[in-house]
Write a structure and sequence with these properties.
Length: 210
């Protein structure tokens, strides 16, 4: 159970930060790696820059007008994986905060609700006139990524396990893979899968600065 949980975190890390590449390592059989959603979107999708100190609702709404443009194929609902720092900023209610400046003076334009997700987690839903953003704190967005959000249009991203000859390479466990000279038992958990990301302009990276 513990190793399966570690494997799950490895998958989440790869799907968030993985860099696509192809390398045969000199074997002649290429190993292909798919992109994670954050570097792929930063390279091919939308990127918006905000300031903790000065970006209020007006700047945010201007960005959403561009981001939710219907001609880009947007669904109108985005899952936003955000750092805990950004979640804290969005939920501050003090004078000069994002919500105070937004809801206090533009209460007919912005609707912010804290709702419970399907799996019991907390979701901060921000409803703008153009579409809905569902903010969820992602613990992997820390350190150099503590000021990041990645907005994902779930209708344009899919989990794709490798499949060939009728065999799926989705997560499976192989037991007793130790060598004959090993006095013990070794099992391994394997997943060969990646993200299929389409319409990159429907995804966005939001960066905040002091």
């Amino acid at each position: 159970t513990e190793k399966l949980m570690e494997h799950k975190m490895d998958l989440e890390h790869a799907f968030l930060f993985g860099v696509g590449s192809s390398d045969d390592g000199g074997t002649g059989a290429p190993m292909r790696y798919t992109h994670g959603i954050l570097p792929y979107t930063e390279t091919n999708g939308k990127v918006y820059n905000f300031s903790y100190a000065s970006s209020g609702y007006d700047a945010f709404l201007d960005a959403m007008e561009d981001y939710f443009a219907p001609e880009s194929g947007n669904s109108g609902n985005k899952l936003v994986l955000a750092s805990r720092k950004v979640i804290t900023y969005l939920n501050k209610l003090g004078q000069g905060s994002f919500l105070n400046n937004s809801v206090g003076s533009s209460q007919y334009s912005l609707d912010v609700q804290n709702i419970k997700g399907t799996f019991g987690h907390q979701v901060t839903m921000v409803n703008t006139i153009f579409g809905n953003l569902h903010f969820i704190a992602d613990p992997l967005l820390r350190g150099p990524y503590e000021d990041y959000c990645v907005a994902v249009d779930m209708s344009n991203v899919a989990y794709r396990p490798l499949a060939g000859n009728g065999i799926s390479r989705d997560t499976f466990i192989e037991t007793n893979v130790q060598g004959n000279d090993v006095d013990g038992r070794k099992d391994q958990i394997i997943t060969e899968a990646g993200l299929e990301i389409s319409l990159p302009e429907t995804h966005a990276v939001m960066k905040w600065s002091s």
